[in-house]
Amino acid sequence: MPVNIPDKLPAVEQLKHENIFVMDASRALTQDIRPLKIVILNLMPIKITTETDLIRLLSNTPLQVEIDFLKMKSHISKNTPMEHMTMFYKTFNSIRNGKYDGMIITGAPVEMLDFEEVNYWSELTEIFSWARTHVTSTFYICWAAQAGLHYFYDIPKYILSEKMFGVFEHSLNEPLNPIFRGFDETFYVPHSRHTEIKRDDIISKPELTILSESDEAGVYMVMARNGREFFITGHAEYAPDTLDQEYQRDVAKGLSIELPRHYYRDDNPENPPLVRWRGHANLLFTNWLNYFVYQMTPFNREDIQ
Question: Active site at which residues (predicted)?
């Protein structure tokens, strides 16, 4: 089944070019199917790119998925046209009385700030609390994972001596967890961050379970509340060229930046990247939608609590 997204969203044409079946809202209204409703709180600066990356993965299941995009009322995006934000994004006040089968909260370029210094922190934490009673399962990515762990479980973040930047090998701590159905024993994930959470802080909280780690990149996936919350420190959703774009951007700015590790063929930025995380990424989002959203959410969405 396709993913149902707003009419005229820019991602549509790109995904159709990739032979991904997407359906706009007008056509979806003609189908008598109870779709999964997913809300994406997009905190990334280049929002159209993030929309496309996430929709690409959410569309790869037999389930029909209906997506709403959420923005922060207390923060104005500087990198996405206002017309796009007005047309495709909702504010929290417009959805706070509704319920969703699933939610994704993206990373944000604010990791060097203390959480409470982020100008939309108050609004964000209100959304975090709301999600616990209005969403069946919430997927926190990168900075959002650190923010959620800090807010709910008092887990600190730590500034790294150098950026965690590249594609790293990960292992499974609980291979029988349904989120890993179909995974190999090791798999790869892109990371791009200046801060980290530490294993010892996580294991001190009995409510938290570390599902996956990397010898180089550290804690990758943490689960809470029997899968109603997942905290993911990497970027499985990244397109093949995302790390390259980040690297070339920083080089052009004259910033001190190391090559993304284990990314370019022969570690040569003149060569294309070795893409080896897409299979894992598709399985990750498919398993989340199937086992922790579709199979856990009540048929009557209003019964979520």
Answer: 142, 235, 237
190: confidence class by pLDDT, cuts 50, 70, 90: very high
Q: Is 129 annotated as a binding residue?
A: no
273 within 8 A of 241, measured Cβ to Cβ: yes
CB 154 within 8 A of CB 146: no
How does DSSP classify residue 281? H
Residue from 142, 191, 196, 213 carrying the catalytic annotation: 142
- Could you tell me the CATH number of the domain that includes residue 191? 3.40.50.880
The three-class DSSP label of residue 276 is: coil
Question: In the predicted model, is pLDDT for residue 103 greater than 90?
Answer: yes
Domain of residue 39, residue span = 3-242+278-303
Q: Does residue 92 have a pLDDT over 50?
A: yes
> Does residue 184 belong to any structural domain of this protein?
yes
Query: Residue written as tokens 């019964």?
Result: 303
Residue 94 has a pLDDT of 96
**181 annotated among ligand-binding-site residues:** no
Q: Is residue 12 part of a domain?
A: yes
Tally of domains in the chain: 1
Q: Is residue 253 part of a domain?
A: no
Token pair 């926190």 in the structure block, residue = 140
Residue 269 located in a structural domain: no
18 carries an active-site annotation: no
pLDDT of residue 109: 93
Among 62, 85, 12, 69, residue whose Cα is nearest residue 37: 69
The pLDDT value recorded for residue 1 is 46
C-alpha to C-alpha distance for 13 and 97, rounded to whole angstroms: 32
Catalytic residue among 134, 170, 191, 235: 235
| Catalytic annotation present for 237 | yes
Mean pLDDT computed over 48-62:
91
Confidence of residue 37 (pLDDT cuts 50, 70, 90): very high
Confidence at residue 112, expressed as pLDDT on a 0 to 100 scale? 94
Positive or negative, the CA dihedral 222, 228, 229, 232 is positive
Over residues 8-25, the pLDDT tens digits come to 777 767 766 665 556 555
Q: Tell me the C-alpha distance between 67 and 24, whole Å.
A: 10
